[in-house]
Amino acid sequence: MNWPIIGTPKFVGLQNWKNLLQDQMAWRALWNTTLFSLYYILPTMALGLILALLINSGAKASGLFKGIYFLPVVTSFVVICGIWGWLFRSSDTGLINQVIGFFGIPPQAYFQDPRLALPVLALLSIFKVSGSIMVYYFAGLKSIPSHLYEAAKIDGASGWQCFWSITFPMLKPIHFYVAIITTIGSFQIFDSAFILTSGGPSYSTTTLVFYLYEVGFTGLRLGYASVLSYMLFAIILTLTLIQRKYLGKEINYY
């Protein structure tokens, strides 16, 4: 349908799908979203696992650090974006520019540089989400039977060998779940691009959901926006099925 909200919807057949194939901006948005996923998924999973291992190690004040790590999760994303905007301010007053200035690196215009804007947004999402990923991994660590580690230590295994031979494989169900939710979250990224960059500079942070929003609610092309949403659904479904095939198998402790 060609449905501009105001007026009567008009049936246009497959025209919206034909428009998708010819829409360079849609494919640019898909490429930006894919890049964002590459910047975001694996670092978020790795950082969440590292934080879970730290608080599971039994170090002093681990409960306090658990709260600190989880604090960004319960903080408003608008507040986090405001802090990020201050940290990565392009002028000399930006904290990150002040830090890199000690190493002789000139100030960077993070949100005005097409090469840097998307990685900075990915870093923001990593900071925001890693605390919740930590909780999932921490629960997984607590579910691993202790006798596996005891047997490994009797056999003379080092801590690193225990991690790669016991901890990491036994967390496979957690890897599967975390991979799915981070993948879905990465392809649905919208708020940081909307608040901090408005899709710029030079459309370098125009993600698929941001473009869908612009088409549907700014351009009032709801039929074409629906086509974009179906494409997003198909991509997420395909990636989820692939992850299920390789990560979704049950594990046996014996």
TrEMBL record:
<feature type="domain" description="ABC transmembrane type-1">
    <location>
        <begin position="30"/>
        <end position="243"/>
    </location>
</feature>
<dbReference type="InterPro" id="IPR035906">
    <property type="entry name" value="MetI-like_sf"/>
</dbReference>
<comment type="similarity">
    <text>Belongs to the binding-protein-dependent transport system permease family.</text>
</comment>
<dbReference type="Pfam" id="PF00528">
    <property type="entry name" value="BPD_transp_1"/>
</dbReference>
<keyword id="KW-1003">Cell membrane</keyword>
<keyword id="KW-1133">Transmembrane helix</keyword>
<keyword id="KW-0472">Membrane</keyword>
<dbReference type="InterPro" id="IPR051393">
    <property type="entry name" value="ABC_transporter_permease"/>
</dbReference>
<keyword id="KW-0813">Transport</keyword>
<feature type="transmembrane region" description="Helical">
    <location>
        <begin position="222"/>
        <end position="242"/>
    </location>
</feature>
<dbReference type="InterPro" id="IPR000515">
    <property type="entry name" value="MetI-like"/>
</dbReference>
<feature type="transmembrane region" description="Helical">
    <location>
        <begin position="37"/>
        <end position="55"/>
    </location>
</feature>
<protein>
    <submittedName>
        <fullName>Multiple sugar transport system permease protein</fullName>
    </submittedName>
</protein>
<feature type="transmembrane region" description="Helical">
    <location>
        <begin position="116"/>
        <end position="139"/>
    </location>
</feature>
<keyword id="KW-0812">Transmembrane</keyword>
<keyword id="KW-0762">Sugar transport</keyword>
<feature type="transmembrane region" description="Helical">
    <location>
        <begin position="174"/>
        <end position="196"/>
    </location>
</feature>
<feature type="transmembrane region" description="Helical">
    <location>
        <begin position="67"/>
        <end position="87"/>
    </location>
</feature>
